[in-house]
Amino acid sequence: MKNRQTRNLLPILALASLFIKISGSNSVHPVLTGPDKAYLGSRAVYRCTAPGSSPPVRYELVSSDGALMASSVDPQGDQPATLGMKVSEASAGAYHCRATAGGNTGVSNSITLSVVIPPLQTTVTSEPFPPVLYEGSRLVLSCGVDRGSHLSYTWFFNRTEVDGDIEDVFNVTGNKLVVEEVTPEHAGSYYCIASTSVQDIQRFSSSSDIQVTVKVYVSKPEISFSVFREGKSYRANVTCWSSRGSPPANFSLLLDEAEVYSVRATQSLVGWFVVEVVPGLDMGLAHCQVKTELQELKSEPVTLEVVPVGGDVSVNVEYLYTSASRLAAALLTCKVSRGTFPLVSWLLDDSVLPSLPHSALINEGQTLILTQLGPEESGSYRCRARDSYDSSGPWVESEAQLVQVTEARMTTTEKISISFCCFLLLVLVVCSVCVLKMFNHDRAHPQTAPVNSDDLSLSELTSRAEDKKTESPHIDFDVHNQVYW
Ligand SMILES: *[C@@H]1O[C@H](CO)[C@@H](O)[C@H](O)[C@H]1NC(C)=O
Ligand SMILES: *[C@@H]1O[C@H](CO)[C@@H](O)[C@H](O)[C@H]1NC(C)=O
Ligand SMILES: *[C@@H]1O[C@H](CO)[C@@H](O)[C@H](O)[C@H]1NC(C)=O
Ligand SMILES: *[C@@H]1O[C@H](CO)[C@@H](O)[C@H](O)[C@H]1NC(C)=O
Predict the structure, then answer these.
(1) Which of 228-237, 356-365, 409-418, 459-468 is modeled with the greatest confidence?
(2) Whose CA is nearest to atom 5 of ligand 3?
(3) Closest C-alpha among 451, 468, 467, 460 to residue 335
(4) What is the whole-number distance in angstroms between the Cα of residue 259 and the centre of ligand 3?
(5) pTM score of the predicted model
């Protein structure tokens, strides 16, 4: 019974072992590893193994169209084969490995190879070209190469890489750097670097610099004038300027709407014109005009009239007290009823004011501040005025005004506290001058009288004095000194 069973099994076992033998000798399963990118002109090296195949094993690197690229034989059957080929432009495509062992052949996975061409001759092109454009317009810079593939681009602005911090100032996509609305801060030099990378080997090509210029629109021009004497006649120097804008521009002077002079400003946006004037005579309405290739703007008008100093001159005295009702300062203002360019000077007891240690002049000398009132400062004050443009002209003098210390002697404590108050006032003055300077930065006046506004002043005193200033006729021309940003 047992014997018969064994006899029945035998053919099955034989068949099975045969099957195993056939399938074993047929199963050549090669595996291909290697690069999917390689530089043009380099050698691409692949490895092929067919584990478990009986030696000798023949390996072949074959392209997708069947061309044999490289081959090698492994006599032992335990070494992976190294199959290399020189990369040409035609090398791009899919590759697989074919392994033959014991009369059986197997085909591996396939690897697609890209041929990387290193960048050559990188240049930046701009739109518009040349890269000179007005603020608010669109700028596109493109990084181009004569030859190259698989490229990455890096931009540099003023030699600093455009990334992270300054990326939101620029839009960088692909090989382009775009600024939708340029501002003056985009002006500067730009260059780009094109690069490729294959297995940690990088190749670069850098462009040369391109200089981007951003032009600023000119602001409405401003006008002012000063007067000087030349021999027996008088001339006005009419100055026109724009506080903002890129030169060049043409400035012209219009008198009663007719252009009389024109100058070309190439370095800074200022032009000046000298015209003859007769003091006391209205010479007409003057305007400035600024013209660029894109703009034409006219200033506010100014009446070209020089009123000689005349009428009444008077001194107005104001006393300022501390919160404890102590006299802290005196504010003397010289009122000149007529005159476009008055020059004011002060007299104390009929001699020209010596420079008192606790005094200051503001408003072009028209306001005198006495920050301490001692015997030295007491006396009769007068002011006088003449035309600043005529040093031989007559002075018009005011009546005398008595300024006196009326208080009784002060105690030491009072002295100390008043000194402290004065110190505080001084600090205030310095601060207010700074603030005023910031605001008045771009103002310009017809420079005629000595300017002492940088000296001592109080914020309160200054504002009071400024109020007075507008009453005086000589600043008619300041009204137009607006700053446009
Ligand atoms: C960048 O692009 C976005 C969307 O296109 C745009 O809103 C932004 O203004 C651009 N920035 C610059 C600096 O051009
Ligand atoms: C870039 O450089 C230019 C000079 O080439 C300079 O005028 C400009 O202020 C610089 N801009 C910045 C943002 O650094
Ligand atoms: C006219 O004034 C400008 C400044 O505003 C000055 O630079 C120029 O020299 C003056 N011209 C004359 C002739 O005084
Ligand atoms: C400015 O003046 C020059 C001559 O001085 C002239 O050639 C030029 O065309 C003028 N430019 C404009 C924008 O008017």
Answers:
(1) 228-237
(2) 239
(3) 468
(4) 20
(5) 0.65
DSSP state at residue 398:
P
Give the number of the ligand closest to the Cα of residue 225.
3
Decide if 437 is inside a domain: no
- The answer to the question of residue 441 being in a domain is no
Closest CA to 181 of 125, 138, 119: 138
Q: What is the pLDDT of residues 280-328, one digit of tens each?
A: 999 999 999 999 999 999 999 999 999 999 999 999 999 988 888 888 8
Taking CA atoms, 330 is separated from 47, 368, 371, 434, in Å, by: 100, 8, 7, 22
Considering every ligand atom, which ligand is closest to the CA of 189? 2
Same structural domain, 41 and 60: yes
* Ligand 1 surroundings by CB, under 6 angstroms: 169-171, 178-180
Last residue of a domain, one of 215, 248, 271: 215
Q: How many domains does the chain have?
A: 5
Q: Which of 132, 155, 156, 158 to mutate to test the pocket of ligand 2 (most atoms within 8 A of CB)?
A: 158
Note the pLDDT tens digit of each residue in 192-204: 999 999 999 999 9
336 falls within a domain: yes
Domain that holds residue 397: 310-403
Q: Are strands 37-39 and 31-33 parallel, antiparallel or unpaired?
A: unpaired
pLDDT tens across 328-341, in order? 889 999 999 999 99
